[in-house]
């Protein structure tokens, strides 16, 4: 009797025997992927994410031991840290560098949930819920009911007031009326582009153009293009430490009078390099000079990684950013709890408009999209804001975890480079963000890196740059030195 189906492959037993089998599956899938011509419709980041998902699924289908799979396939495409998977303890058990406790302390772990062999106490989980009830009572006492429709769409005034007050530590004066909540920073940026474009059209003008420095987080490019903005991408160089200089900004604004928005990541994704206070002051001086010539430009300052680095350095950067008269009022700050506190699933974001009139003009963009954060989310947002205000040691603990993982990942990549000769340069960073940015040797790309090492990164083209570069994240999985 014959059959068209091939016999199932025998699965080797034992971790030592299964790891080579996982490597073989890894090589096979990467090579099959290379044999299919790319149509260019799928973004590079999604290509890699899909490839690693397919690989993990195939390993499950073939019955490989999950422990062998974890050692041979590591998804470093996504930046977000999965707090439940944290297993690092860099010191005394139960001490300030026992990062395994973060899921419990942040209230993410369910009461009794197994955290690497120990049950979560549930104290953080319960504290958040008790605090949410207290926050709701405070809102009702203030005359705001989070359970009914918010006609303004920008969120409750108590939380917006707290976020405005936070800006004072950086020398930024703002009121609750200058703050709007969103479904993460990305949602706020989308609403800002939508609002600015609508305002331009009411004046019978086009939205203009977005100035974007590459490499950089490019979702704003895609969002802006959706609303009719033209794109001006400025490629920075390694000699410039992948940062836009004030000279290049000045020249680009002179040569491109259609630019209406300058997207500025104060600390960069993917490079993990941050602008110095002096560099930020110089950039804002260029913005001021442009306004003096009759070419005003909004500066969309993405603060996603302010808080992942050293606090004194972050404060100096922020004070410099807002220190230039005639330019400071052009700033629109966007921030979130996603990266700073590893709360990506909660989608807490907000925008602060330095210009109160612009803030008022943006209200229709908020009202005409998702209207407002759901009331329950706002209460959780408020509870977390209170938690971090009362327990600043948690903020430092998260920074410590990021520092530890960056150092371990850098060491791991150097060891792999000694074996496989993959990298021209593993770039140093400014002790910030959750990424490493590397230049590949000629002939290497993100697929060959995955095939040889089992580590999936994201190609440089994802960030408007060259695929000679690759970005790795310390998120999701701990770094296992094997």
TrEMBL record:
Pfam families: Aminotran_1_2. One of its GO terms (molecular function) is pyridoxal phosphate binding. Keywords: Aminotransferase, Pyridoxal phosphate, Transferase. This is Pyridoxal phosphate-dependent aminotransferase. InterPro entries: Aminotransferase_I/II_large, AspAT/PAT-like, PyrdxlP-dep_Trfase, PyrdxlP-dep_Trfase_major, PyrdxlP-dep_Trfase_small. Residues 155-476 form the Aminotransferase class I/classII large domain. GO terms for biological process: amino acid metabolic process. CDD domains: AAT_like (cd00609). Residues 1-27 are annotated as: Disordered. Its cofactor is pyridoxal 5'-phosphate. It comes from Streptomyces coelicoflavus. Belongs to the class-I pyridoxal-phosphate-dependent aminotransferase family.
């Amino acid at each position: 009797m014959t059959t068209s189906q091939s016999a199932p492959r025998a699965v080797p037993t034992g971790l030592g025997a299964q790891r080579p089998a996982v490597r073989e599956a890894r090589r096979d899938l990467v090579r099959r992927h290379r044999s299919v011509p790319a149509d260019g419709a799928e973004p590079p980041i999604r290509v890699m994410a899909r490839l690693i998902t397919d690989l993990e699924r195939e390993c499950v289908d073939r019955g490989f031991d999950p422990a062998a799979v974890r050692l041979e396939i590591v998804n470093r495409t996504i930046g977000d840290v999965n707090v439940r998977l944290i297993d690092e303890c860099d010191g005394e058990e139960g001490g300030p560098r026992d990062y395994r406790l973060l899921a419990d302390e942040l209230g993410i772990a369910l009461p009794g949930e197994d955290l690497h062999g120990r049950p979560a106490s549930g104290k953080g989980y319960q504290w958040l819920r008790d605090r949410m009830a207290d926050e709701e009572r405070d809102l009702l006492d203030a005359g705001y009911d989070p359970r009914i429709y918010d006609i303004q769409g920008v969120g409750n005034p108590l939380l917006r007031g707290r976020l405005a007050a936070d800006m004072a530590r950086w020398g930024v004066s703002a009121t609750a009326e200058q703050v709007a909540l969103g479904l993460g920073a990305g949602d706020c940026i989308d609403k800002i582009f939508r609002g600015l474009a609508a305002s331009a059209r009411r004046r019978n003008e086009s939205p203009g153009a977005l100035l974007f420095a590459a490499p950089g987080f490019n979702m704003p490019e895609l969002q802006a293009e959706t609303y009719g903005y033209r794109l001006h991408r400025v490629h920075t160089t390694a000699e410039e430490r992948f940062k836009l200089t004030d000279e290049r900004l000045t020249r680009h604004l002179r040569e491109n009078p259609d630019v209406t928005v300058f997207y500025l990541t104060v600390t960069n994704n993917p490079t993990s390099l941050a602008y110095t206070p002096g560099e930020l002051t110089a950039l804002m001086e260029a913005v001021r000079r442009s306004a003096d010539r009759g070419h005003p430009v909004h500066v969309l300052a993405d603060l996603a990684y302010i808080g992942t680095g050293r606090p004194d350095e972050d404060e100096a950067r922020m004070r410099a950013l807002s220190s230039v008269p005639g330019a400071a009022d052009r700033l629109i700050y966007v921030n979130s709890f996603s990266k700073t506190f590893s709360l990506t699933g909660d989608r807490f974001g907000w925008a602060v408009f330095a210009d109160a009139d612009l803030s008022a003009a943006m209200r229709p963009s908020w009202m005409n999209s998702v209207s407002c954060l759901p009331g329950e989310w706002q209460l959780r947002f408020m509870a977390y804001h209170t938690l971090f205000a009362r327990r600043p040691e948690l903020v430092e603990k998260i920074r410590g975890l990021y520092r530890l993982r960056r150092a371990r990942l850098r060491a791991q990549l150097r060891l792999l480079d000694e074996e496989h000769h993959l990298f021209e340069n593993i770039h140093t960073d400014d002790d910030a963000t959750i990424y490493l940015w590397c230049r590949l040797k000629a002939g290497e790309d993100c697929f060959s890196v995955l095939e040889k090492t089992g580590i999936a990164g994201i190609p440089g083209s994802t960030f408007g740059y060259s695929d000679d570069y690759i970005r790795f994240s310390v998120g999701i999985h701990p770094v296992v030195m094997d």
